[in-house]
Specification:
Blueprint lengths: L9 H8 L1 E9 L1 H5 L28 E6 H15 L4 H15 E2 L6 E2 L3 H4 L3 H21 L4 E4 L11 E4 L7 E10 L8 H12 L7 E11 L11 E5 L16 H13 L3 H9 L10 E7 L2 E7 L12 H7 L4 E8 H10 L10 H4 L9 E3 L2 E5 L4 E7 H5 L4 E3 L1
Helix pairs in contact: 1-3, 3-4, 3-6, 3-8, 8-9
């Protein structure tokens, strides 16, 4: 299979590897729901907010640290979990949309000037919503929730976006509703209203084993915005969902949805279907995966975007000869995770529960540079990276799925 290989420009590489942050404010549900409750000012220089759960004037809010590659990783993962139509195209589109949308030159993540107005229609709300979902998943990972699945669609009525889980079948589950906004320049955005809309989505729904629920709102401002408010993330942690056993999903359901989504991102759709359904004894996907060691961890990888080309001058071999520094966007999984997934499809118990999936350390989700490439690993073992093409053609280990 030939492949479309994308060579990021230097500005693109900077956008994907640059670091930025967003202050994170936890707000009190009762105060947000109260029509007269005050939450402003969100001012990092003085007091932050009037909400009772926010830090005092002498302490700063927590921060969500991220790189452009981490944001892309989280958005693509959210897209795959939700099983959007034309998922691979949505992933490629976000990689392209990312470049003219986000300004990474300041510590506080910003939009380029004019973006909020340019996207002031359905397209913009769709993009800001997808970015909001990605940021929500990054915040959940920071809180220790490493696995994510789409909330099962009810016959009617509101529902949250996701179910997240902290450490596999024995871990804690939570419901997550995300809201994302590109704030118009100098606008006093209705943050309370947005979060209250999110509360509707998590209130009174079947918990499916979740003991907590979150509403996460992201509000990104333009670089030239004169408001005292920064781009920020705010979230609500509503009360417990009560009886969680009455409608509990299978113990490994969230883990299966999580890995099936990323196998889809890797273009391994048959394997994704088998993992998602827990199909034991399936023939499996006959795919040969390149194994590459990055920062001391072995990953099985595939090019992110498969494509058919009839032009030999656009083949990866020719492009690599013309540009030895060619970098290829790839998606991957730790090889230890791939082995667990393979065994689970042969295990008659059918339960996807293994120490290699549940164990981990915080360093596994730290972005890195290795062998001239750049990687965004997540704690579940998934990877999005820009890898030098020479590493892919260099002889080495491969594995079958």
């Amino acid at each position: 299979m030939n492949t479309l290989w994308v060579q990021p420009t230097l500005s693109a590489i900077r956008a994907f590897t640059a670091h930025a942050s967003l202050p994170v404010f936890e707000l009190d549900r009762t105060n947000v729901a109260n029509r007269k409750g005050k939450i402003r000012p969100f001012d990092q220089a003085r007091g932050f907010t009037s909400d009772p759960l926010c830090p005092s004037a002498s302490t700063g809010p927590s921060s969500l640290m991220l790189t452009g590659l981490q944001l892309a990783h989280a958005v693509i993962k959210a897209d795959r979990v939700r099983r959007l139509p034309f998922e691979w195209l949505a992933g490629l589109a976000f990689l392209m949309e990312h470049l003219p949308t986000f300004d990474w030159r300041e510590d506080n993540l910003r939009l380029f000037d004019g973006i909020s107005q340019a996207y002031a229609d359905f397209t913009g709300s769709s993009l800001s919503g997808r970015v909001g979902q990605g940021l929500a998943l990054l915040l959940m990972e920071q809180m220790g929730f490493r696995f994510v699945g789409q909330y099962p669609r009810p016959p009617s009525g509101p529902r949250p976006d996701f179910i997240v889980e902290s450490s596999g079948p024995s871990g804690h589950r939570a419901l997550v509703e995300s809201k994302g906004s590109f704030v118009r320049r100098d606008d006093r955005h209705n943050i309370k209203g947005v979060l209250n809309e999110g509360l509707v989505q998590v209130t009174g729904v079947a918990p499916h084993g979740a003991t907590k629920s979150f509403v996460v709102g992201s509000f990104l401002r333009e670089a030239g915005d004169k408001s005292n408010e920064p781009s920020l993330v705010s979230f609500l942690d509503p009360e417990s969902n009560g009886n969680v056993q009455s409608d509990r999903l299978p113990p490994d359901w969230v883990v299966r949805q999580n890995y099936a989504a990323w196998l889809d991102a890797m273009g391994l759709h048959e394997a994704a279907s088998d993992v998602r359904r827990g199909r034991v004894g399936a023939k499996g996907e006959q795919a040969r995966l390149k194994v590459i060691a990055l920062k001391g961890v072995d990953y099985a990888i595939t090019p992110l975007v498969p494509w058919i080309t009839v032009d030999p001058w656009l083949s990866p071999e020719v492009l690599m000869l013309r540009d030895p520094e060619l970098r290829v966007p790839v998606a991957g999984l730790r090889t230890s995770v791939v082995e667990v997934l393979k065994r689970s499809l042969r295990d008659t118990s059918g339960v996807l529960d293994h120490p290699d999936l549940l164990a981990g350390n915080p360093q596994e989700s730290v972005p890195f540079e290795s062998k001239g490439g750049y990687g965004s690993p997540m704690a579940d073992g998934s990877l999005l990276a820009l890898v030098p093409a020479r590493e892919l053609w260099r002889g080495g280990e491969e594995m079958m799925l």
